[in-house]
Amino acid sequence: MRTRRGFLATAGALTAGALAGCASTGGGGGSSTSNLTHVDVKKPVDVSTVSSMPTPVRGDPQSSVTVAVFEDYACPHCAHYATEIEPKVIENYTKPGKVRYEHHDFPIPVSKTWSWAAANAARAVQDAEGDDAFFSYTHTLFENQTSYVGRGSTGYDYLATVAQRLGADPTTVAKAAMGGKYDPVLKTDRQKGVTMGVKGTPTVFVNGSATKSYAYDTISAAIDAARSSS
């Protein structure tokens, strides 16, 4: 198993070499931390862990072409992908139903706290409100990454506030984030990524083959090739 430092070094090297300009501080334009829903969760958090959940999927679940993306919620390169690259993939391939698009969790972890906490919160939203809400929640988190990473208790308030806007119970989501309710699911996903050869985040696979970078043109070419051969 690679160390956290090894994963981080590899992620930085891959990204810097493959996609210029992605080594930003991440998180899009940021989000105000005012007017947040305050959640008062007693510690230690008592939660019953969940051992399995379906993979979050959008697009055509039956498509012959599967795009699988492994991400870490605290990774600034993942924030860049989610805000700058993924929307083009969604618009051109997912919405028209040309691909099955899967999210996979791969907490390196970039942050020992937030790589896991944000992923747990997102799975809590999926559990309560379904895949559409999950993807909306995930996009919002990546778009506003600096509103929770490194924010202490305010970060949990942010995770809860965004969940509440999507119809999920904020306290339930905050407890999942703090208590690691979905850690077994995340660890299984992470191990799947290790087995597939993930060395950094984000890593994009098209029908099981990793793309050379996460640049849109690279992903698009791989999808087009897979569609033409299927």
Notes on the protein architecture:
This protein is of the alpha+beta class and 230 residues long. The chain has one domain (4-18, 47-229): 3-Layer(aba) Sandwich (Glutaredoxin), CATH 3.40.30. Helix content is 50%, strand content 9%. It has eight helices and five strands, in the order αββαβαααααββα. The chain has helices at residues 4-18, 76-94, 114-129, 131-143, 153-165, 170-179, 183-196, 216-229; strands at 57-59, 66-71, 100-105, 203-206, 209-210. A five-stranded mixed beta sheet has the order 1-3-2-4-5. Helix 3 (114-129) packs parallel to helix 5 and helix 3 packs across helix 6 (170-179). It starts with a helix and ends with a helix. Residues 1-6 and 9-32 have low confidence and may be disordered.
Summary of the model, kept short:
By secondary structure, this protein is α+β, with helices and mostly antiparallel strands.
Distance between the first and last residues' Cα: 34 Å
Cross-sheet strand order for the largest sheet: 1-3-2-4-5
Major sheet, described briefly? 5 strands, mixed
Question: Number of folding domains?
Answer: 1
Main attributes of the structure:
230 residues, alpha+beta, Glutaredoxin, 8 helices, 50% helix, 9% strand, elongated
Architecture blueprint of SSEs:
Layout: H1 4-18, E1 57-59, E2 66-71, H2 76-94, E3 100-105, H3 114-129, H4 131-143, H5 153-165, H6 170-179, H7 183-196, E4 203-206, E5 209-210, H8 216-229
Parallel strand pairs: 2-3
Antiparallel strand pairs: 1-3, 2-4, 4-5
Helix pairs in contact: 2-4, 3-4, 3-5, 3-6, 5-6
